[in-house]
Amino acid sequence: MKTANLGKRTTRLLTGICFATLASASWSEPFKDVAPPHLKEFEEAMKLEPNIDNGRQLYKRYCITCHGPEGWGVAGSGYPQIAGQLKDVIIKQLADFRAGNRDNPIMRAFSSRRSLGGPQEIADVAAYISSLPMNPRNEKGFSLRVEEGRKLYQELCSDCHGERAEGDPKRHAPKLAGQHYSYLMRQFNWIRNGYRRNADKKMVEQIQEMTPSQQVAIMSYLSHLRPDNLAPEGWRNPDFDYFDRSWRPATLH
User: Fold this and answer.
1) By CB count within 10 A, which of 39, 53, 85, 232 is most buried?
2) Cβ(92)–Cβ(138) under 8 Å?
3) Could you tell me where the DSSP H helices lie in the chain?
4) Is the confidence at residue 6, as pLDDT, over 50?
5) 174-205 as b/e: b if 16+ CB within 10 A
6) C-alpha–C-alpha distance, residues 179 and 121, integer Å
7) Could you give the number of structural domains in the chain?
């Protein structure tokens, strides 16, 4: 495989990959196997005016134990940072969990109708998560690989995920900047191995050609990127000031 000149066809396929919490830039592909009620429900959620106060309560009830009071997840644990992610991306990923297009029994339970209810609740919790500032001290990859990763990212990924990996709400491409390095690596491997069923089959086939060295470089670059919505140093979410910050969920493997 050529290290950088993969060609236009490869570029188009790879740029749609969602490495982070949140995969697959295409809206239609992840929903192709979802029953119409699911699709209708989540499309409606994207159009609703969210109630942030209700979203805060839903977050406390269903999300805080794993993702933490700030929504920053836990480095090296398999729990991603979800704070500051694009609202529509969060909604789409909840749809994929609910439909079984992503294998995570805990998330499938918390995204079920019994937990989240209908479109309004989905819109509310997604809007609250999106409003949270991001971790200024996320887990980072190898600093010596950042420049190499920047060049690869610009050639292979920026068309869909943006020049600064800020994501694209129109494409439902997630923000990748500032995500935990180990989570980026883990999700990329899951997409490569076909474990993420919401990834396009052509993408899964194409990324087999990416070398482990290229993968490390790109994920290192993404983890070092500083998004615009960083929290100030020492910030604590005042909505959950009482929460024990020594909390740690069980590690996912």
Assistant:
1) 85
2) no
3) 7-14, 36-47, 52-62, 64-67, 87-99, 105-110, 113-116, 119-131, 146-156, 158-161, 181-192, 201-206, 212-224
4) no
5) bbbbbbbbbbbbbbbebbbeeebbbbbeebbe
6) 25
7) 1
The reply to whether 105 falls in a domain is: yes
Q: Is residue 47 part of a domain?
A: yes
pLDDT in tens, 111-127: 888 888 899 999 999 99
Q: How far is Cα 99 from Cα 109, in angstroms, rounded to an integer?
A: 11
CATH number at 60 reads: 1.10.760.10
Report the distance separating Cα 150 and Cα 27, nearest Å. 26
Around Cβ 221, how many Cβ atoms within 10 Å?
A: 28
* Residue 250 located in a structural domain: no
Instruction: Look up the pTM and report it.
Output: 0.83
Cβ proximity of 160 and 116 under 8 Å: no
Packing angle, helices 7-14 and 146-156, rounded to 10: 100
Which pair of tokens denotes residue 33? Answer: 């196997």
Residue 26 lies in a domain: yes
Name the residue with tokens 């990996």. Answer: 165
Coil, helix or strand at residue 141: coil
Q: Domain range holding 16?
A: 7-233
DSSP letter string, 64-91: HHHH-TTS--BTTTTB---TT--HHHHH
Q: Which of helix, strand or coil describes residue 133?
A: coil
Are 29 and 95 contacting, i.e. CB atoms less than 8 angstroms apart? no
Residue 49 exposed, middle or buried by CB count within 10 Å (0-12, 13-18, 19+): exposed
